[in-house]
Protein: Putative ABC-type sulfate transporter periplasmic binding protein
Amino acid sequence: MRLTHRDLHPVAARPARLLTAAAAVPLLLVALAGCGYGSKADAGTAAAPSGGSGKKLSTGTVKIGFFANVTHATPLVGLKEGLFQKELGGTKVSQRTFNAGPSEIEALNAGSIDIGWIGPSPAINGYVKSHGRSLRIISGATSGGASLVVDPAKIRGVDDLKGKKIASPQLGNTQDVALLNFLAGKGFHVDATTGRGDVTVERLDNATTPTSYKSGAIDGAWVPEPTASKLVAAGAKTLVDERTLWKGGQFVATNVVVSQSFLKDHPDVVEAVLRASVNTNAWIKANPDRAATDVNAQLGALTGKPLPAAVIASAFKNIQVTDDPLAASLQEEADHAVKAGLLKAPDLKGIYDLAPLNKVLKAAGHPTVSDAGLSAH
Structure:
């Protein structure tokens, strides 16, 4: 079965049916805290602060958080290449890595980190749960890097998904919402809470998904990188590259968020981090092979095991670093969660503050980016 763009675009093709649980499922904002990189919250792993020479900014240390994942290439590469420290001068960088969104949002709220790289669902969740007081999204980081990969012996087209078991990382996380929305758009009925229906949605930690696939416990998975590439290396085939479902092939995978109090008290530090982020993204685009090597080296240092060469090459090819937060896609992702019955319609007005980023972009001679009407100003 050859899939056309219309087949793979549930929004453009026809209105998605509401999932069977849409009217009954209670508000599951907590479930939306994960962002596709592991379902277990943890306290995070901290590294000793590092500092450079030069004048300190308005604070002696900036605490940043991110995941040991390919979709967090910006902090991984920028820290390894010294691009963040270059902009921060004598202000030290304190790093903390996380496995999932809930713990990073908790750390941001507790002041354990000041700035974090995180997926759209936990950013939305953190903002809504705090009634708009906890965070602002201040930049984009990556687009893409999520796919539906399946066992080609069992699934050759979308119709073959019926009766199969497909994994997602976590109930209500970014990829889970994408999978539920896609299935609903194709006419499959799935209970959003239990994952049971015409297709069984199994919520599995990304770390265990490849093992479950190899054992035959699941028939495929809608997962982010590098898990998607790990499955392909194990014999799976890509049925849906999520980029094909979005206008222009772009959707937000990772944002940069900041504590509102830190943004207010230390705008110079926020601006320095954003300059470093913009410079790092430009460096990655100019040096993709070395950037992939840097990411894999960082993954090895953080997790104890770098990825095989073929997997890191595939995973890195499937993401796009971007300064643009792709704000319109954030609203659409929230709409998908509402359709799935996982979220009451949120008011996202004020979730963005892109003034510092646009100042940096303008100074660098780059085009400014849009907040899609969701700015704090």
